[in-house]
Amino acid sequence: MVITLENVVKLVEDEGLNYSIIEYPAKSKKSIDIITKTKDNKKFLVKTSTEKISKDEIADLKKFAAIIGGIPLVITENAEEDIAIDKGKVFAISLEGFEKLLSGDKIFIYRTRGGIFVKIRPEVLKRKREEMNYSMGDVAKMLGVTRKTIYDYENGESDVSIEAAEKLIDIFGTEIIGDICNMKLDIEESEIESHKVLQILKSVGFKAALLKLTAIDIVASNEKNKIVITMEPKKQDIIEKKIHEASKIASDFNLKLIIVTRSSLRAKELEKEGFQVYLDQRIDSLKDEFKEN
């Protein structure tokens, strides 16, 4: 079945959920097609895919989710109904799988290049093992693996094969079964590009990253603040569209939106509309705002 945005929207509407369609950029690849929130408050960042998804699209989804929050998903015709595809900690699922997630069901089986695995809850596995007075060595013997493997399972650092998962469930029960929606995401320093605004934000304690294929250019967070920044595009005929779509993303995640513009006239116009604006030439003053916090 060919996946279209209309297919996804119909599922969301059938569940009675609110959603935002993100329409920027309009004529090229984009990393976020739709944002929706389930009845149990899960926020999905969804990319629909009818062709091979690019590394930049995956990177945008991962960075946004790691720094701001939300559950990044790619919906593709290449996934089986109950088996997700791990694309670097961003999961691709079928349309049927997405319908299950919207209704509150779990998907816990996923495929990588190395095989098919089961998502478990590491903290529950550790708690159950300790409650039953098993050592890691005891469990390792039961599964026929090394003690290091059990350590990795309990720290979420290793994929769990279907065979190992079945044995763990026999020992500890189904409570240990996880959900791809609960994957903890983080980004390495090597994944963060160099950019003047990123350096300013990092100097005042923010974790920040650059996005390439959506209306938001920079995502950033620290213990007190979560912000998104949109830079004025070179093409003036798309600036209003970009800001409008950035506003939808910021609103869906209750984020402070900051706009960086090159023109004093444009800055005044945007400020009249209620936006917080910085001139590109004076972007260093961004540091002063967050120093006070």
UniProtKB/TrEMBL annotation:
Keywords, ordered alphabetically: DNA-binding, Transcription, Transcription regulation
Domain HTH cro/C1-type, residue spans: 125-180
SMART domains the record matches: HTH_XRE
Source domain of life: Archaea
InterPro entries registered for this protein in UniProt: Cro/C1-type_HTH, Lambda_DNA-bd_dom_sf, MTH_967-like, MTH_967_PDDEXK
A Pfam family recorded for this sequence: PDDEXK_19
Listed GO MF terms: DNA binding; DNA-binding transcription factor activity
Name used for this protein in its record: Putative HTH-type transcriptional regulatory protein B6F84_11410
Lineage summary: Archaea, Thermoproteota, Thermoprotei, Sulfolobales, Sulfolobaceae
